[in-house]
């Protein structure tokens, strides 16, 4: 087989494999989306009649609304704390040399490989040891640990892509280190900071496994509320709520990619 034909065959096979993988990943979401418009009070596919009734029921259900409010509270605090802590550690790791630097970095990134139920169970045991109730403080602390690696990674890559000549030029003109930080470094890091916060917010709002251990009846987030609901009911309200989850997450990521260029922030493509 000529080399050019062989290369075209490899490219074609590559496209087929990618399409099969994408289809495998998208198929469950497509099935859930179609099932959400079912008119019957039971999950079935494909629906014989179409209706939006389950979307209205999901938005009107009080437990879902309470879980949504709790999720917003936890997400707001955990993403903000993770942004401050992660950006600080990313700056220190990139710019300074200190003992146990790689060890600290490994500890900060360890939640990427530690199962979430282990983290949630650990925080539950710690809360019991210190006599703390499963309030928002414990939930937020648990979520901060889980989303911190994503903020750290996002800001660290932005720092690596940052042209330090701007900072050196400002310093050579007499700007103090704090002035250089606030007027040069942070504005240039803004895409990385916003994308890190966005990833932290999305992951925190969708976190279920660890939240199941550390939340109570009054602090349970929306994923935990959905889990408790599906244990008792089997109507398409869950599918409708899942569709809203998917659409909301997709809109946020598309918005961030349009205004921030996530490819450059995540080092997928080179900045110019």
Describe the structure in brief.
With 272 residues, this protein is mostly helical. It contains twelve helices and no strands.
In total, the number of strands is 0
| Helix-and-strand structural type | mainly alpha
Helical content (DSSP H or I, runs of 4+): over 70%
Q: Low-confidence runs (pLDDT<50, min 5 residues)?
A: none
The main β sheet shows up as: none
| Number of H/I helices | 12
Order of helices and strands: HHHHHHHHHHHH
Radius of gyration: 23 Å
Gross morphology is globular
Termini Cα gap: 40 Å
Q: How much beta, percentage-wise? A: under 5%
User: Mean pLDDT, rounded to whole units?
Assistant: 84
Overall description:
- The chain is an all-alpha fold and 272 residues long.
- It has helices spanning 3-35, 53-60, 62-95, 101-109, 116-129, 136-161, 165-172, 177-206, 211-214, 222-230, 237-260, 262-265.
- The longest helix has 34 residues, at 62-95.
- The radius of gyration is 23 Å and the shape is globular.
- The model has no long low-confidence stretch (mean pLDDT 84).
Q: Which features characterize this protein?
A:
272 residues, mainly alpha, 12 helices
What is the topological layout?
Layout: H1 3-35, H2 53-60, H3 62-95, H4 101-109, H5 116-129, H6 136-161, H7 165-172, H8 177-206, H9 211-214, H10 222-230, H11 237-260, H12 262-265
């Amino acid at each position: 087989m000529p080399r050019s034909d062989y290369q075209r065959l490899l490219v074609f096979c590559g496209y087929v494999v990618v399409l099969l993988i994408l289809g495998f990943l998208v198929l469950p979401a497509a099935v859930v989306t179609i099932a959400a418009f079912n008119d019957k009070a039971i999950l079935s596919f494909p629906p014989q009649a179409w209706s939006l009734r389950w979307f209205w029921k999901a938005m009107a259900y009080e437990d879902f609304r309470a879980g949504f409010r709790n999720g917003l509270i936890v997400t707001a605090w955990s993403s903000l704390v993770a942004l401050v802590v992660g950006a600080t550690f990313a700056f220190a790791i990139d710019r300074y040399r200190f003992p146990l630097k790689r060890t600290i970095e490994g500890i900060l990134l360890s939640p990427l490989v530690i199962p979430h139920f282990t983290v949630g169970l650990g925080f539950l045991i710690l809360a019991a040891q210190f006599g703390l109730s499963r309030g928002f403080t414990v939930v937020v602390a648990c979520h901060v640990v889980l989303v911190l690696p994503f903020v750290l990674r996002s800001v660290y890559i932005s720092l690596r892509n940052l042209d330090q000549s701007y900072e050196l030029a400002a310093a050579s003109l007499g700007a103090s280190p704090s002035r250089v930080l606030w007027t040069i470094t942070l504005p240039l890091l803004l895409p990385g900071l916003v994308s890190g916060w966005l990833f932290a917010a999305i992951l925190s709002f969708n976190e279920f496994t660890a939240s199941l251990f550390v939340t109570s009846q009054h602090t349970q987030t929306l994923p935990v509320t959905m889990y408790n609901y599906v244990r008792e009911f089997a109507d398409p309200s869950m599918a409708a709520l899942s569709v809203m989850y998917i659409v909301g997450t997709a809109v946020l990521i598309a918005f961030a990619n349009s205004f921030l260029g996530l490819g450059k922030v995540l080092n997928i493509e080179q900045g110019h």
